[in-house]
């Protein structure tokens, strides 16, 4: 009986013909669990910026409204995967566009009386820039008691120039003429000036870049003339008026 049982087991299990050993039965892999939805991943609420601030804000400037993306994301980072498509910037979260504007290198030129040389310390440092903006928004919330996203939107609206000048050649003379600015360029100019103001404010200064950014956002949201972005906007529009 024992011999018959051993033969039955050997016939049921595959064996190695060379060694005569019986291979162990293969174990089935457990099925992969379905990934949790993004809004419930690790208990993170992705509908709030930095898990603190609401995206439910108002954009009163109708010109730039269609270019201000407020798609909810806790830590916005798309890494410009859609950069090959036209007007793809309009679909990028506006906070991420501020991050991209801050990740600039040193120009080596004097801007606002200071030579901007960041030595590339912010280039490619997405996570570092996120923490800078988070600290700046915390400071804005502590000083104003308002939603810092709304303060940021107000700063963009106030610091976006309406008209600019362009250089044309007529015969042998070159002159500047005033032109209207597209909504996309208005937003780009405002973001660039706010980011530049933050870098200038922290250049050779004990003040950190997050404090400089918070100060610039508050001043620009109040349309204060001490804001660098407001000064640049007024200068651009003044040159356009003088060219008429």
Task: Give the termini distance in whole angstroms.
Answer: 111 Å
Q: Return Rg in Å.
A: 29 Å
Shape: globular
Structural class designation: mainly alpha
- In terms of DSSP E residues, the strand content is 5-15%
Strand order of the largest sheet: 1-2
Biggest beta sheet attributes: 2 strands, antiparallel
Compressed to H and E, one letter per element, the order equals HEEHHEEHHEEHHH
Distinct helical segment count: 8
Average of per-residue pLDDT values: 81
**What percentage of residues falls in helices of 4 or more residues?**
40-55%
> Low-confidence runs (pLDDT<50, min 5 residues)?
32-40
Brief rundown of the structure:
It contains 8 helices and 6 strands. The chain has 244 residues and is mostly helical.
Explain what the structure shows.
The chain is mostly helical and 244 residues long. Helix content is 42%, strand content 10%. It has 8 helices and 6 strands; from the N terminus they run H-E-E-H-H-E-E-H-H-E-E-H-H-H. The chain has helices at 2-12, 62-65, 94-102, 126-144, 148-159, 183-202, 209-221, 228-242; strands at 48-49, 53-54, 110-111, 114-115, 163-170, 173-180. A two-stranded antiparallel ribbon has the order 1-2. It has a two-stranded antiparallel sheet with strand order 3-4. A hairpin with a 2-residue loop joins strand 5 (163-170) and strand 6 (173-180). Helix 4 packs across helix 7 (209-221). It is globular, with a radius of gyration of 29 Å. The N and C termini lie far apart (111 Å). Residues 32-40 have low confidence and may be disordered.
